[in-house]
Specification:
The chain has 188 residues and is an alpha+beta fold. Helix content is 16%, strand content 40%. The protein is built from 3 helices and 10 strands; from the N terminus they run E-E-E-E-H-E-E-E-H-E-E-E-H. Strands 1, 2, 3, 4, 5, 6, 7, 8, 9 and 10 form a 10-stranded mixed beta sheet that branches. A hairpin with an 8-residue loop joins strand 3 and strand 4.
Length: 188
């Protein structure tokens, strides 16, 4: 299973803000660490429980940065990306992303659907690098992944993977924590 690209879907229940702008900048929680999510249906015999380790994304983010992670609509690798990731970082909570939707028909459509609350879920596509399976292959702890893409989707599987906010690019201010993160990146 470790050589395959695996796609996982993220969640609903989102806080969305737009500050008198175009609403094409998104703040996203892509993965929450330490939370067990059911992938598929364990009760029906074709699923498993998945948890991401606190450090599972560190190497892929350090090595590639946000520019190598594609922002897609519905995991559609055949279509153009819908935007770009401008920031990606981890903290104790999970993997956070700032994304900018492109000024294209598809990007503007997604921005409108996010603002309306019609699209709230995200999903990640990744290659498994290192995992630990337990409980007769019904539980997996993802210890390291090679992150390939983030998709905005209709329905996600990870209960906490959300679009947290939409806003205009111009109204961005950095928190002290975000500024410290950026300064630490410059030290690499």
């Amino acid at each position: 299973m470790s050589s395959n690209t695996i796609q996982r879907h993220g969640f609903a229940g989102t806080e969305i803000r737009s500050q008198n702008g175009d609403g094409r900048t998104l703040d996203i929680l892509a993965v929450r660490f330490g939370v067990e999510d059911e992938i598929g249906s364990v009760a029906d015999g074709y699923g498993f429980y998945e948890t991401f380790d606190r450090n599972s994304f560190d190497e892929t983010i350090r090595r590639n940065g946000p520019s190598k992670i594609r922002l897609l609509g519905h995991h559609d690798m055949r279509s153009n990306p819908v935007g770009v990731l401008t920031e990606a970082w981890t903290d104790a909570q999970g993997v956070h992303v700032t994304a900018r939707l492109s000024d294209t028909t598809q990007g503007r459509d997604i921005a409108t659907l996010v603002a309306d609350g019609a699209l709230t879920d995200v999903s990640i596509g990744f290659r498994d690098v290192k995992s630990k399976w337990t409980d007769h292959n019904r539980r997996v702890l993802r210890q390291e992944v090679a992150w390939r893409e983030l998709s905005i989707v209709n329905l996600g599987a990870l209960a906490d993977a959300k679009i947290l906010a939409s806003r205009s690019q111009e109204t961005r201010t950095l928190s002290a924590e975000a500024a410290q993160r950026r300064l630490r990146l410059l030290d690499l």
